[in-house]
Structure formats: structure tokens, C-alpha cells
Amino acid sequence: MKHETAVTFIGCLFIAIGCNTSDALLGSGDAGPAEGAVTTGADAAGRAPGVEPSDALLGSGDAGPAEEAVTTGADAAGHAPDGGVEPSDAGGDGAPPFDGSPSLPVLATFEFVVNGVIQTPMSCPSYDWEFPFPSSVQVDAGFAQCGPPCPGVASALLINTGPVAIAYIAATSWAVGAHYAPGVLTGDQYQLAGVLDPGDQVDITSVFEGAITALLGSSEPFSYPDASYASDEGTIPWPGGVSGSNGSAQMWVAQMWVAYQTQMRCGAVAQVW
After folding, report:
1. Are residues 61 and 181 in the same domain?
2. Would residue 104 count as lying in a domain?
3. Same domain, 120 and 239
4. DSSP letters spanning 138-187
């Protein structure tokens, strides 16, 4: 039937006798008029006359207008009348192929806010969570820290901005070689510990003085894995009695450092977990 349709169309195109433009090849959608098309005995869409709808070439969707097209035996969508490639042969429903890449993990995220200003970590080659000291706060000369409380620090906050709980311990002093766990107090003076649910915050002004500021822990990592090594992140077994594990047996930890001296920025930091 497709061969007969092509012959009928060619007869109308060159002989132009008895062609009725109301009889057209029907696609599955409406085809717009061809712009600049040669229409000799065919309608403006290049459809052959004298063909019943049941004999039409059926496309899979609406075809747009053919620009500067000479239609000789093909439908308005450019499908060949016989032996051509139908839309079903062209590669599926148009969805992009699955490339096999693994999905990125959920991250634990937080903000460190001093005097109402969100602090941004420095770009250090081996550390993800080193912050410059707030420029509005004056620190003592030399290597002395500023407090606590630091003069000029009206507030220092940790805010959980992510989808999972974050345990924390914030302290003024940290014993070298000791192993601290987020959410667990050790009994030393000037310590705060607990668990922040998503959206919660804690004021650590009373223990903030720069250098190692807090150790955070979560059931999800604090940054995406990449080629670089961050020595201020790691994992520990989930501490007993600390909520927010989501069933995880391990805790991802991130150690915050605030460089209270310019020469200490991106410098070596002892791990305290």
C-alpha cells in the first residue's frame, strides 16, 4: 500500500489532474504548512491527494513545518514511505542513557557564625575546616589566644544546616594525644557538648578562643570524597550514648580550627579524635 501511495502522489505532482487538496496523508499529529515548499497538485503540507486516511503514513508525533522542502513521496515529518526509519527505531523515548555514575552521598553541613557573620573556611591544601579569625576581633600579641570570652565576640554560633543530626564538642583547651568524641563531655572546664538536630544551633561564645574550636560528628560525611586528602576529617566508631546515628556504626568527624594568627593559617593541626 505504501508503494501505491507514492505512485498516486507522484501522479498528482506532475500531472496535476483531479487532485483534491482536502485529501491528505495523515500523520499522528497536525503538520504545519511548508514554508517555500513546491506544491503542484498537492496541498500546502506536501500531502498527496486522493489518498484515504487509512492509507496514510503514520508518524509517532506531530511534525513541524518543513522549511524550503520539496515533498516527493515522504510525509511532512520527513519519513520515507517505504524502507525508511520510523521514530520507534531512533533510540527510545528520548530519556538520557544511564551512565552508571554513582549518586553523590548526603552531606552533613553546618555554619560557623561570629557576630552575625557567616565565616567561610580558607582554601588550604590539606584542611577543609580551617577558618580565618574574624577580622573585627582583636587578639593578643604573639601566639596568645583571646579568651575566653574573646573581647569583641558578642556571639559565636554553630548551626546545623543539613538534613542529618550533628554531634559536637566545643572547648577552650584540648589535651595533645587525647581522643575526644563529639557529643561526649570529658569533665574538663570550658567544654560544651551535645547533638544538634537539623536547624538547631548552639552558642559556643563562652568557650571560643580560636585555634581548635570544635569537633563535629555525623552519620554522613562533611565533604564529598575527592583526590585531595583532608587531615581534619576522619571516622571513629559511633560513641555510646550519643543520639543521631541513624543506625550507623561509624561517625564522620570534622575538626574546626580558627587561625588566630596570620602565620598559623593552613598550618599543621593536631588531630584530637
Report:
1. no
2. no
3. yes
4. ---STT----SSPTT---EEEEE-SSS-EEEEEES---TT----TT---S
pLDDT in tens, 193-204: 999 999 999 999
ω into 105 cis (within 30 of 0): no
- pLDDT tens string 155-165: 999 999 999 99
Q: Name residues whose C-beta falls within 8 Å of residue 100's C-beta, 6 or more positions apart in sequence.
A: none
Cell numbers for 261, please give them. Answer: 594568627
Number of independent structural domains in the chain:
2
In this structure, are 181 and 118 located in the same domain? Answer: yes
Please provide residue 84's backbone torsions phi and psi, each rounded to the nearest 5 degrees. -80, 180
- pLDDT confidence of residue 21: 42
Kindly state whether residues 2 and 76 are assigned to the same domain.
Answer: yes
- Asked if 66 and 76 count as a contact pair (C-beta separation under 8 A), the reply is yes
CA atoms within 13 A on the CB side of 268: 1
- Tell whether 5 and 56 lie within a shared domain: yes
pLDDT for the residue numbered 44? 47
Task: Check: pTM over 0.90? Answer yes or no.
Answer: no
Per-residue model confidence as pLDDT tens digits over 116-161 = 999 999 988 888 899 988 876 665 544 456 667 777 889 999 999 9
The C-alpha angle with vertex 202 and arms to 199 and 204, in degrees rounded to 5, equals: 150
For residue 61, which of 47, 74, 46, 77 has the smallest C-alpha distance?
Answer: 77
The answer to whether residues 50 and 24 touch, using CB atoms and an 8 Å cutoff, is no
Residue 153 inside a domain? The answer is: yes
For residue 122, the enclosing domain spans 110-264
Residue 88, domain member (yes or no) = no
Domain check: are 15 and 149 in the same one? no
